[in-house]
Amino acid sequence: MSTAHDTTRDPAMPPAPRAAQKTSAGSSVDLRLIGGLAALLALLIVPIFLRNFVVFQLTIILAYAIAILSLNILTGASGQVSLGHSAFFAAGAYAAGILMEHGGVPYGLAIPLAGVICFVFGFLFGLPALRLKGVYLALATFALAIAAPPLLKLGTFEHWTGGVQGLLLTKPDPAFGLPISQDRYLYYLTLAIALLIYWLSVNLLNSRTGRAFMAIRDNEIAASSMGVDLALYKTLAFGISAGITGIAGALGALAVAFVAPDAYTFNFAIALFLGMVIGGVGWLPGSLAGAAFIVLVPNMAESVSKGLSGAVFGVFIIAMIFLLPNGARQLVDLTYNQIRKLIR
Amino acid sequence: MELFTNQVLSGIATGAIYACIALAVVMIYEAIDHLNFAQGEMAMFSTFIAWQCMQWGVPYWGAFVISVALSFVAGVAIERVLFRPLGHASILVHIAGFIALFAIINSVAGLIWDFTIKPFPTPFGATPLFGGVISSHQAGMIVVTLALLGLLYLFFRFTRIGLAMRAAATTPDSARLVGVNVGWMIALGWGLAAAIGAIAGIMIAPVIFLEPNMMGGVLLYGFVGAVLGGLSSPAGAVAGGFMVGVLENLTGTYIPGVGNELKLPIALAMIVAVLVLKPNGLFGRTQVQRV
Questions:
Q1: pTM
Q2: Which tens digits make up the pLDDT trace of B163-176?
Q3: Chain B window 94-123: which residues touch A at a Cβ cutoff of 8 Å?
Q4: Which of A96, A240, B158, B242 sits 20 to 30 Å CA-CA off A102?
């Protein structure tokens, strides 16, 4: 994302995402561009040939990928750990649901509004979190994840949230009278928003703000002595990350057409965290790989062995972190290097 | 006033459970500098081993010793096989490893012993004390926790190996220079934590019953107790565990409209408030960083 990455000294954070680095070897940049375009093309074309249910699953993967991307901005760039993103995801889903069903707001407006609401939530939560670091911050965010489902079930808000029952959403019809199914339309809508957010995030990390995040991650004291406003940028990172997760939550809720408190438990926060590690911390395209892992591998494990599905899932994770400790990014780098050797 | 005393006493009784787990959490944190998410599942597995031994006719204390010894060995083995090869990988990767371990242990225990709830015997009996607020088992549990804490204090303060473990945890490089085998000290820390977890599991099981998911909620409270007391202080962790138990009970009693569901979030919110004022926990060392 930026050359500021090269000076990473903190062993806790992996080195620079090389994908977007300006390398001197022109051919490698081209290869990466080709790889990215091929992936994009696949994302655009493949759903045309798939059943509606598979398209729906892909939509969920994309929504999770957006949430993991936001975690990548928070953890990978600014170095703050969160185990509470399920709460922001839930907030986005509920914000969109309540706006659409009770407020009559069209979905096109409800999605960005959910993002704004979650941005405010995240920013406010970032204020007390300012004083906490490492495991203590993890505990505070963890409290958030634990608190979310019971709060959503509370009787006082039942009129709005539907309490334990949850809230049914109407799936939007394709815009402009497009002759495709609702599931497919939602897929392309989610894809378009995901690409927009990806583009904005890459630019954010390349900007002055992004460099401030990374400076804080690498050494807070040094960053503050260079004039980085720690309080502002740390809460900003929380706000932006929560806002993006909120949009992901709104998209996920639209795809499922239903929001319920028990869909957003602590386990979901753990799954998002796992997706970030599997994709490669700090490497934004890895978010998609991580999301695919947390959606598909549990299903696969279930089909390998019903009774031992948890064990199979665990073995998969261990295999991943042993073979590829830097996540999917490492796999992509290896492949590129192999191809470059072949071309030479 | 009587209501208050009763609630505090029963809070202390549940707090003893959290204190046990918090102690195990702090032990492993001292040794490896990470929070082990699989700690609760490891303790659950140890408890099942003790239960299985008793099913085979081993007397209570025999099963206790077998389970604690096996857990120690298993803890060392997990460190050697799984986490040592990961070495200096980032913390986030280690956490993914803990999650994997959690999933594996939970699912294997479910396969071997299935998910039905099993009663677990206690050596202390179940006679009610202090007018029924606290049972003799819970009193026994508190005594065991405090005794364990005392033993650990002596171990870390006065034995060669305890001192070496502390040195390895606080300043690995200097410890290596004076001849401490840092790698083995870490493995020993894992073993010790697993053994303490086994004791905690066996003490808790009569209260919350034995099943593969028994540790879910308890581990959360244990973490919270450990962090509240300060991760660098075993005594702090025990105190933190007791405080969480009491706090949980008092919020349930005195704040209107708080059902069972909201007890944990409110206790957590209070703890976050405490942490904001004292970022290293109540009894933790303040960490000074050199630029």
A1: 0.81
A2: 888 888 778 888 88
A3: 95-97, 99-104, 106-108, 110-111
A4: A240
